[in-house]
Amino acid sequence: MHPTEEPAVPTRVIGLISGTSVDGIDAALVEISGTELDLKIELLTGATYPYPAGLREKILAIGAGVAISMPELAEIDDAIAQVFAQAAQNIQIGHQPATIIGSHGQTVYHRPPADRGIGKKTTPDSPLPSTDAINRVSAHFPLGYSLQLGRGELIAHLTGITTVSNFRVADIAIGGHGAPLVPRVDAYLLSHPQEGRCIQNIGGIGNVAYIPPRYGNWLSKIRAWDTGPGNSLLDLAVEHLSAGTKTYDEDGNWAASGTPCHPLVEQWLNQNYFHLPPPKSTGRELFGVTYIHQCLKDAQAYQLNAADILATLTELTAASIVHSYRTFLPEMPQRVLLCGGGSRNLYLKQRLQLLLASIPVSTTDEVGLSADFKEAIAFAVLAYWRHLGIPGNLPTATGAPQEVLLGEIHQGQDSVLSREWESKGRIPNF
Ligand SMILES: Nc1ncnc2c1ncn2[C@@H]1O[C@H](COP(=O)(O)OP(=O)(O)OP(=O)(O)O)[C@@H](O)[C@H]1O
Ligand SMILES: CC(=O)N[C@H]1[C@@H]2OC[C@@H](O2)[C@@H](O)[C@@H]1O[C@H](C)C(=O)O
């Protein structure tokens, strides 16, 4: 290549995601080099941009199953694209511009493939919503379905930057879950030559990637799945118990002042999702509003106060994670690295450490990868891989029969919309 030529491969990439907590858009501006085993990333900057008032509530309502009209859906789709585009522009301020965006968008609906919902029945002790309920909906549709809003073509036009979006659909179309997708990135950024590691994300939903020591056929031994609730049930309970004055239990302090009710945790762990073998994925359709209502009802039978309820829900998150390692992993890891907002919940971290006994629990920050922005970084890498023609899914994680290229590419070009950004410093309103 002539030294003055632009490199063929984009290296400065923006990753964007809003997860199942719907707490805002995580944006990461990263420099990427290498491809897989030599993959390297440098986080130039990361930020979380809250959703404008009203939009979060509309997204949560869709997730809770509230019916909306097609015009409303279209309006929300473009409103999300607009805030994602604004996040992309803001994150570049003071930096060289990025050449590509990887935008996950906002999940508003996720249905795993039908045959993955069959498992142990929920016991009569607790009529918690079960995967059977989700399955009935999908009984005649063997493929999964996952909808992320914030259309990529609009982000490309608003920013003028080529945008890769809709990452989950290709894996789903060949029979996979389309989730979790981050484990392939975890494998290349967080594997260790001698140490078997569990990378545990605790977002709204929890998911794990078990990465064996990096030798032999280590890649084929990776396992990953959604462990169940991360913070989704806790956040809903906090909102209810604080009469809407709080949205989460900061550092886990409220839960730490209570006592977990172990018989109730045992009862809740009978729920069939926890007994399904991986690959498996889930969302707020299961661990959402209906679920927490039943949990709160169950708690009444034990006369739990607010702090005890939160301690018991925190224990459910911790116990479901550890139960799934003990049940589904070929061997326990030598270290657990947490990421996602739940890694800041000190009480939850403490309970996980207690349940994992001698296995050390720390965060991905401690091995040099931002626990707050790892998911956004991962979607930057997935966009980069898409550009290079490298598959992004890991069949052992999603259950897909083969590797596939993930994401649709929308060319960025100089447009009326992107010029408005340049002249006014903000994304136009519609
Ligand atoms: N200091 C803190 N103490 C306790 N909990 C926290 C703290 N900071 C964040 N959280 C929790 O983390 C959640 C947000 O986590 P995160 O942003 O990783 O979720 P997400 O990316 O939306 O979800 P997912 O990974 O399922 O897509 C908050 O809703 C809150 O419950
Ligand atoms: C459908 C969907 O958005 N799933 C999310 C969700 O949040 C955590 C867990 O459930 C995970 O499977 C996934 O996200 C991450 C980014 C993933 O695909 O790896």
TrEMBL record:
* GO MF terms held by the record: kinase activity
Ordered alphabetically, the record's keywords are:
ATP-binding, Carbohydrate metabolism, Kinase, Nucleotide-binding, Transferase
Superkingdom is Bacteria
Query: Any idea of its EC number?
Result: 2.7.1.170
Q: In which pathway does it act?
A: Amino-sugar metabolism; 1,6-anhydro-N-acetylmuramate degradation; Cell wall biogenesis; peptidoglycan recycling
Q: Does the keyword Disulfide bond apply?
A: no
- One of its Pfam families is AnmK
Q: Which residues bind ATP?
A: G19, T20, S21, V22, D23, G24, I25, D26
What InterPro entries does this protein's entry cite? Anhydro_N_Ac-Mur_kinase, ATPase_NBD
Reactions mediated catalytically? 1,6-anhydro-N-acetyl-beta-muramate + ATP + H2O = N-acetyl-D-muramate 6-phosphate + ADP + H(+)
Looking at the keywords, is Zinc present?
Answer: no
Q: Where are the transmembrane segments?
A: none
Record function comment: Catalyzes the specific phosphorylation of 1,6-anhydro-N-acetylmuramic acid (anhMurNAc) with the simultaneous cleavage of the 1,6-anhydro ring, generating MurNAc-6-P. Is required for the utilization of anhMurNAc either imported from the medium or derived from its own cell wall murein, and thus plays a role in cell wall recycling.
Read off the NCBIfam families from this record.
PRK09585.2-2 (NF007143), PRK09585.3-2 (NF007148)
* Family designation: Belongs to the anhydro-N-acetylmuramic acid kinase family.
Protein name according to UniProt: Anhydro-N-acetylmuramic acid kinase
**Taxonomic path:** Bacteria, Bacillati, Cyanobacteriota, Cyanophyceae, Nostocales
